[in-house]
Each structure stands twice: as structure tokens, then as C-alpha cells.
Amino acid sequence: MEPVKDIALGKDVSLSGIFRQMKFSGGFTGKDLGDAYEMLRDLIRGDYGRILTFTADIISTGTRGVIAQLIKEKAFDLVITTCGALDHDVARSFAEYYHGSFFEDDVKLRKKGIHRLGNVFIPIENYGPLIEKKVQDILSRKYPQGGRVPSYQISWDLGEVLNESSFLYWAYRNRIPVVVPGITDGAVGYQLWIYRQAHPDFVIDVLQDETLVSDFVYESKRLGALILGGGISKHHAIWWSQFREGLDVAIYITSAYEYDGSLSGALTREAISWGKVKPRGRHVTVHGDVTALLPFLVQAALYE
């Protein structure tokens, strides 16, 4: 048994120093954050195959910059996300999203031509029509004769024309694959389908994605993942990990809970029963909002 230790603050205490103290503070989410910091730091700096997964919604916020920074710094080797993340990354490379409110009248917003994503406001013209033009331009230039294309190639094709604020841009620059298992479930995916209507030889081959993920998992000496939120991105990472006896390091940050049996709320310890996290692996589930926690964790793990 270890005694609970008080956290001491001061002018000379760094952010990483606070996280290290939180690890020994004994209590609640603070202790989990301390463990998450230590694991993330070791994962980024250690000899691991490193997977980053996240949901689309955080790309509509300023946390997009943290994701882009992680990929710019080559802190991860493989990204798994959703089609909506591509949508928001494309849209925000060319247009603005705005501060909003959870409590606005959605009927009025609809009449004004504004989508609401939580407390983020997105003008319609900054989303669907913009994404349609950009994606169709790229497809017309890249695939006039069709072709069989994995989702990670589509991600690189998008990143090639985006600016440095984009996580896809840095994935393209650093040749880090961005795999999108649910590639048709969003605005970019809809444009892929639209393009297919006039170009029947154009095919999104998700099985090429699976080959890439399989090769990555089996070729990694050790395997670790930072999993932000849940859904298909989370499951895809832990699903493939089970075929090499599970993750050696698993860090979940989620606002979901396990009482309803959801995958998004399932804890790291549940993944052990499936062989998706090793019984002796290092793992932690932090309950909280990614947009509130991730910037501090990444700043401390990457730069201190």
C-alpha cells in the first residue's frame, strides 16, 4: 500500500510535474490522468507501433490543432478515424466554424442555414457545398480513369491540397496512413459515391486498408494505442490488436460509461477478456471530455 500524497503547486512546478504528482495523489480521475500521462509519454518515446484513434466531433473544435501536432511530430504511426473527421478537416481548411451554444433554438438555426454541432456553429455553405466542390475537384484530377483506392490513399489525396492547420496535410507530408473504416458515412464519403455514378471503374477498396492495418499490427514488436472517444475508430484498433494477443499499452479517454454495454463506454479491463489488451499490459481509462484533457496531456508528454 502506498500513502496518498498531496499535490504541491508553485512557480517552479511544470505541467509534467503536476501530472507526475497526480499519479500519486491516490484519488479519482486525477490519478487516472497521472497514469495516462506516464503511459502516453512512454508510448510516444518508446519502441512501439503507435496507433491514434479519434472521433469526428473533436475536429470541429480547436483540439484539431492538437491532433495535427501529434501527426506533425510523428508521435503516431497509424491513425484510425471516421469520415466526419475528414469532412471537418477539409471544411476548416477553407472556411470558418464559429462559437455557438448548446441552448440555441435549432429550428431558428435551420432557417438561418446553420448546422449545430454541440456548441459549435457551422454555416451550411462552409460544409456540404464546400466539401462537394473540393472533393470532386480532387477526384476528377486524380482518378479520371477510375481505379481501386484504399481509404488511406483518399486521406492522403485530401491532405495534399489542404493547409498546415490540417491533420490530413501532416499525414500526407509524413506518409502516416489515415484509415477510415466507415469511409461512406459522411460528406466526403457521399462525394465518393457521387463520383462513382459517372465513373463506375472507381472503387474504394477497404480491404486494402485491412491489409495495411494487419501488416502494421503483426510487424510491430510492441503495440500501443491512444483511443479518444469510441465508436468504429476505437473498435477497429482493438479488434486488430487481438490477433497479436492484445495491446501492450492502451489509453482510453471517453465521456461514455459501461452501464449500457456500449463499445464506447467499455473500459480497458473489458478489452482484456477479448484479448484486445494484454493481461499484463499497461492500461487506463480516463473519463472526461477529450477537448478539456488532451491539450494538457500532449503538451506534457511531447515537450516536457
Polypeptide structure, described:
The protein has 13 helices and eleven strands. The chain is an alpha/beta fold and 304 residues long. It has a single domain, classed as Deoxyhypusine synthase (Deoxyhypusine Synthase, 3-Layer(aba) Sandwich), CATH 3.40.910.10. A six-stranded parallel sheet has the order 7-2-1-9-10-11, with helices on both faces. A three-stranded antiparallel sheet has the order 3-5-4. Strands 6-8 form a two-stranded parallel ribbon. Strand 1, helix 3 and strand 2 form a beta-alpha-beta unit. Helix 4 crosses helix 6 and helix 7 packs across helix 8. The longest helix is centred in the first third of the chain and has 18 residues. The mean pLDDT is 97.
H-E string: HHEHEHEHEEHEHHEHEHEHEHEH
> What characterizes the major β-sheet?
6 strands, parallel
Low-confidence stretches: none
Shape annotation: globular
Find the count of extended strands (DSSP E, 2+ residues): 11
Strand percentage: 15-25%
